[in-house]
Sequence to fold (318 residues):
Amino acid sequence: MYKSIIIGTGPSGLTAAIYLARANLNPLVIEGVQPGGQLTTTTEVENFPGFPEGIQGPDLMDNMRKQAERFGAEFTSGWVEEVDFSKRPFTVKVDGGQTYQADTVIISTGASARYLGIPGEQENVGRGVSTCATCDGFFFRGKKIAVVGGGDSAMEEAGFLTRFASEVTLVHRREELRASKIMQDRARSNEKVKWALNRQPLAVATDENGTVKGLTVRNNATNQEELVEADGVFIAIGHTPNTDFLGGQIKTDANGYIVVKPGTTQTNVPGVFACGDVQDTRYRQAITAAGSGCMAAMDCEKYLEGEMIHDWSVTLDS
Fold:
């Protein structure tokens, strides 16, 4: 039985763990199949405050974990399969049959970037393949970039990347784009943006040294293979929030992101809070995730204080 359980790690979950542990609430943190979240797949992180020379993503997450452990957070590994938020204490079931209970739960399971599933993609994540222009665009200053996608996100990513790249080629498997007209117009008016429409991505191409050299595509009009030359390949086909395990007990939007009360991390279930990318459809940055983790811990602590005050007064009256 715990005062609080944190489901998921990453910057949000680990920050929440640090704050709750420092408040002597000794939270249990349940790590999933990717302890530390998406930052563990990146190399250099240069935009997290406090590291003027940058820091490796895995090192940053390891430091956060050690900091939480120092103050008394408990960690366990497992994949949460089911939760019961219908009554308190809340129940969290992990694969293997282990069950945990807590007065409060913080959900920080993040959102997984969608990938193409083509050869050379996963092997080069953080080494020329990225899903975050804001995170990694700086590393491609003066170089060629390919952006895969046809929606608003792809148009926005391409526009942002033109600040750094000498050329950005938008690759989409259809001739028509899904993006809104205004976003398409912005992209088409940018002289640095080139187009490779009606092209099906086949593989991330590398040279003999394993360095990314572009994207192999099939021209759907001619059925011929082509190489879109690029030093970096950015996948911009969306994210999927990791909320399936909730079983519909927590209110989500049409895309599955958890809905929180504006300005807080409160969900529709009192005592259950959400932070990080699982409830963030806009920013999706390590620093904003960490900030929301702080908010969740503080909301959680205040909630527990309220409950304790309420129980105490009932005891006195009786």
